[in-house]
């Protein structure tokens, strides 16, 4: 299959996220109340050609471990959808680590 | 015969000339450029990964540089016991490459920090710090946005136990206070070494502390030690 891939990368829980904290304070100063726990992550999308679904998932997982996320500080999850389909590929994303 | 020391250049490296001059200032050394796409270390006996913003710091600082062709050779060289020094972005690349543990995250106060910084030399058990005395205070410049050193608690404990914390951020009295910590690094860690002692990574710039006339000459012993180890 040809797949559309979405990868989500986030700092591990407990890791200080100064960017998230700063945004939270900015929203507070704009008058938005009750906002908490803001974290900023990365959303990466791309296409992958060829292979069975499991094989593509294996390759994407390796890409995440080796480059797209740093397992020391980040967690990642990803989702695949058959290329050409309209709906988001986020559903069915796997939690890893 | 002069000792060849490689200075690696990635797209976005910007302290390469400072490092080249710092290495060249040591008698008996011959600095050599190493372009990131090369796979040939050209007979160098020591390697420096200089500061800057390799590949624009895209994704994470050092994450992309770590997969440049030259890095395979640098990693092999380091694993053979060759002296490798990573400064600032070079430190980030060494952690991304897995040659040093932990990671460098965004500074806890968001801002890019650029200032003179007191450091305590915590170990003299590396070629780069052997000309200092243990506990000596030195002043380098820090200039980075992502220098917040983090690692798992047990990794930090092991680094401390094995004497692998090389430099710590301190104030002018030598106290490792929060106020002296420019970026939120755990336990005020500014630099670490590997098990063998031949790999050193640090965020502050010894290459910008090469002349009393320009503020500090405290960095010069680092390069002298590197060249001696490579000879």
Beta-strand share of residues of chain A: 25-35%
Structural class of chain B: alpha/beta
**How many domains would you count in the coordinates of chain A?**
1
Secondary structure: number of strands of chain B: 11
End-to-end CA span of chain A? 26 Å
Identify the CATH class of chain A: Alpha Beta
* Biggest sheet features of chain B: 9 strands, mixed
Secondary-structure element sequence of chain A?
Answer: EHEHEE
Strand-helix topology:
The complex is a heterodimer of chains A (97) and B (231).
Chain A: E1 3-11, H1 18-29, E2 42-48, H2 53-68, E3 74-82, E4 94-96
Antiparallel strand pairs in A: 1-2, 1-3, 3-4
Chain B: E1 3-9, H1 16-24, E2 29-35, E3 46-49, H2 69-79, E4 84-87, H3 89-96, E5 103-105, E6 113-121, E7 137-144, E8 148-150, H4 153-161, E9 165-169, E10 189-193, E11 199-202, H5 220-230
Output the keywords.
A: 97 residues, alpha+beta, Mth169, Chain: A, 4-stranded antiparallel sheet, 2 helices, 29% strand, elongated, B: 231 residues, alpha/beta, Rossmann fold, 9-stranded mixed sheet, 5 helices, 26% strand
How would you characterize this protein structure?
The complex is a heterodimer of chains A (97) and B (231). With 97 residues, chain A is α+β, with helices and mostly antiparallel strands. Chain A has a single domain, classed as 2-Layer Sandwich (Mth169, Chain: A). Helix content of chain A is 29%, strand content 29%. Chain A has two helices and four strands. The radius of gyration of chain A is 16 Å and the shape is elongated. With 231 residues, chain B is an alpha/beta fold. Chain B has one domain: Rossmann fold, CATH 3.40.50. Helices cover 21% and strands 26% of the residues of chain B. Chain B is built from five helices and eleven strands. Chain B has helices at residues 16-24, 69-79, 89-96, 153-161, 220-230, and strands spanning 3-9, 29-35, 46-49, 84-87, 103-105, 113-121, 137-144, 148-150, 165-169, 189-193, 199-202. In chain B, strands 2-1-3-4-11-10-9-6-7 form a nine-stranded mixed β-sheet, sandwiched between helices. In chain B, strands 5-8 form a two-stranded antiparallel ribbon. The radius of gyration of chain B is 16 Å and the shape is globular. At the A-B interface, helix 1 of A face loops of B.
